[in-house]
Amino acid sequence: MTYPTIKYSDDSEITTTGVYLLLKGLRFYEFYEELDKELRNSTDSEPKCVHCESNIASEPSTGKELIYLCKKVCNIIINVNGILDKCKNNTDDKPCQYMSYWLYNNVMSISNNLSLIRSLYHILRIFCNSRKPNFNNCILKNFNMDRNAFENKHILYEFLESYDDMKNKIDSHNELYTPLYCKHVKENFNFYNLIKDNCTNDTCEYSNDLRNFKKKFSNSDVLEFIYDKCDYIKTSCEQGSNEEGDVPCLREKGNSFLNLIFGNDTEDIIKVLLNVTIIFVPILAFFVILFKFTPFGKNLNKFKQDRKKSGHKKKEENIQDYMKNYAAYLDSEMKNRVHLGYHAT
């Protein structure tokens, strides 16, 4: 499964794939991978999970898929002991939170029908309560919001939860991976500034996540680390309020003139220059063909050669005149010397 904070990457497929592989090595995503594996291996044959069918309307579009998901998650809750213990961040209720985000993300990939989704969570809550001791007293949360709002919330939450692990990776001075981690940081800072002005009061579903994001990433020590390790500086945001004391947008140091023209991303600059090259190469090729292989080009070459011959001939005539004049000058000088020598004797 592709998770929102990875999917958000606005870069090319190669870089996106590289970021995806790197982030899968963080503890947060390792737990997601464990849950994905259990979901793939889970069956829908557990007898107790048949209640999913009677609690979720089997609508032609998405109901059957939600019933199938319900049965597989039910089987995990009932039969996979210690699933939450596989989360390496076992502080507070983090494993339960992570699984709640993971599940709702799966639900949103199937349906945006909040009524159907409430039915799903109603029956899952019953399964969770029946397995409280073995399921770490976890009740999987129904976020009760539409796909767009949840995706914004999920991206902010994922990045907040995975940043400290990512920070340790950046601080390890592995030059091969640091640029990709840093790019991921920059993209999530941009994302925060992109959405913050659309969520300005407490009724917004992800307002608390925005506050937590701002609190952490407007901290001067956190920013100084990013500036130093990623070789970034603060820059104005294309979207957002650019307030002091808020999360800044970032760009690489240097290239200030090119950044002013093309934007804050070095790769964007390269793309623009490549596009310009793509535009002008055919034009250059057109003129090469025009001058080399068409009657116009042949006539032009003939004209140039005639001018060259004419100029060469004129140059030869000038040299010959100069040599004649110089020979006459020498002859005159020699006669004068002979004449003077004769009279001297």
Q: What features would you describe in this structure?
A:
By secondary structure, this protein is mainly α. The chain has a domain at 301-345. Helices cover 68% and strands 2% of the residues. The protein contains 14 helices and two strands. It has a two-stranded antiparallel ribbon. Helix 3 (27-41) packs across helix 6. It is elongated and about 130 Å long.
Going across the biggest sheet, name each strand in turn.
Answer: 1-2
Q: List the helices and strands in order.
A: HHHHHHHHHHHEEHHH
CA distance, first residue to last residue: 118 Å
Tell me the fraction of residues in β-strands, as a range.
under 5%
Largest sheet: 2 strands, antiparallel
Name the shape in a single word: elongated
| Rg (CA only) | 38 Å
Count of individual beta strands: 2
Number of helices: 14
Fraction of residues in helices?
55-70%
Q: Which structural class best describes the helix and strand composition?
A: mainly alpha
Compute the average pLDDT: 79
Low-confidence stretches: 8-15, 256-263, 269-274, 338-345
Keywords: Membrane, Transmembrane, Transmembrane helix
Pfam family, one: Plasmodium_Vir
Protein name: VIR protein
Transmembrane segments: 272-294
Relevant terms:
345 residues; mainly alpha; two-stranded antiparallel sheet
Quick rundown:
The chain is an all-alpha fold. The chain has helices at residues 4-7, 13-23, 27-41, 51-55, 63-79, 94-108, 114-130, 147-171, 178-195, 207-217, 220-230, 256-262, 266-293, 295-344; strands spanning 232-235, 249-252.
